[in-house]
Design a protein that fits this description.
Blueprint lengths: L5 H10 L4 E6 L9 E5 L2 E8 L2 H13 L19 E3 L2 E7 L13 H16 L12 H11 L7 H23 L3 H4 L1 E4 L8 E4 L2 E4 L6 E4 H12 L5 H16 L7 H23 L3 H21 E2 L4 E2 L5
Antiparallel strand pairs: 1-2, 2-3, 3-5, 4-5, 6-9, 7-8, 10-11
Helix pairs in contact: 3-7, 3-8, 4-9, 5-9, 5-10, 7-9, 9-10
Length: about 325
């Protein structure tokens, strides 16, 4: 076997997992830069944290959800901490969940809603270190415009910019006006709950990577889950899956407000368009895809609302 990395050697000592048999880059469903470690005691994922605070936050969340099959367990090191420090960096060690082959994954939307509900209920009982939204919409858009001077003269960029402004204004107005049920929707959220932070294993879905946990509206997490997993081509199937998702969530958390969910879907997609342009630039292919994200918001509006009556699709239990 090739020589082990210094962090893997530190993990073997610090977490007491015995002799390491293999070490590899973690595959799909695991955070970038993670290491997959097979030892005498099991298979684990070694992940680098941004610091001690993130390591502690991730452990507290995992403990709050322990035994509920929502996220992987995090191992305690021999010194009693849920992390080790190696060469001035912090690492945690999670129990590995073997993902199903992509072709074998069939999303159970009621289960997915239930997992999100359990996560939000657990997060509502915690006090965590506050951290900013690293992908805040207006800051991403401003970074894009600064990086590509003159881009705003492009017609497609102008259209996306209009959506950014409208979305930011709506978010500010909604935040100022919230009360009652809407305030109950504000809590800690995962912050990046797309399909890439799910592992679909033999025993169901698991949520991973709590590095973006922050204060926010729960509907934002639900929007991320639905946009990244719900297929819209078959309308009746999509409605059935949406009802199942709502049923699973509402049995374990608060009621989903369709108006807030639609606003969150718009925000998620507009943020995605802004982040894509900021990272890849305004070439024609990128712009086409960015605009398609905005068009897709209308498809979700049709799914969520009966356009003739103006009423939202009710959950069928």
């Amino acid at each position: 076997m090739a020589q082990l990395s210094p962090e893997a050697q530190a993990a073997a000592r610090g977490f007491g997992i015995g002799h390491i048999r293999s070490e590899n880059n973690a595959s799909a469903g695991i955070s970038s830069g993670a290491r997959l470690i097979a030892s005498e005691t099991g298979i684990y994922v070694l992940r680098r944290m941004r610091g001690r605070e993130q390591a502690l936050t991730e452990y507290r969340i995992a403990e709050a959800l322990k035994g509920r099959s929502v996220c992987p367990e995090i191992r305690i090191a021999s010194d009693g901490n849920p992390w080790i420090e190696s060469e001035s960096a912090f690492y945690n060690l999670q129990h590995y969940i073997e993902p199903l082959p992509p072709g074998a994954v069939v999303v159970d939307f009621e289960e997915l809603g239930a997992k999100a509900g359990l996560l939000h209920t657990a997060l509502s009982g915690l006090e965590l270190d506050a951290q900013p939204d690293r992908f805040e919409l207006q800051s991403k858009w401003s970074a894009f415009l600064a990086r590509y001077p003159g881009a705003e003269r492009n017609a497609a960029v102008k259209r996306i910019g209009t959506a950014v402004s409208a979305c930011s204004e709506a978010e500010d107005a909604a935040r100022a006006a919230r009360s009652g049920q809407e305030k109950a929707a504000e809590s800690y959220i995962h912050g990046d709950l797309g399909r890439w932070n799910l592992v679909f294993g033999a025993e169901g879905a698991r949520i991973i990577d709590f590095g973006e946990v922050r204060r926010g509206d729960r509907h934002f997490d639900l929007a991320a889950l639905l946009v990244s997993t719900l297929e819209l081509k078959g309308t009746e199937t999509a409605r059935r899956n949406l009802r199942a998702f709502k049923r699973g969530y509402e049995e374990r958390a608060i009621r989903i407000e369709d108006t807030l969910l639609h606003a969150a879907i718009r925000l998620w997609n507009v943020r995605g368009a802004a982040a894509l342009l900021e990272s890849r630039g305004p070439d024609e292919k990128v712009l086409r895809y960015a605009e398609s994200l905005l068009v897709r918001v209308d498809d979700y509006e049709k799914l969520l609302f009966d356009k003739e009556s103006g009423k939202s699709q009710k959950v069928q239990t």
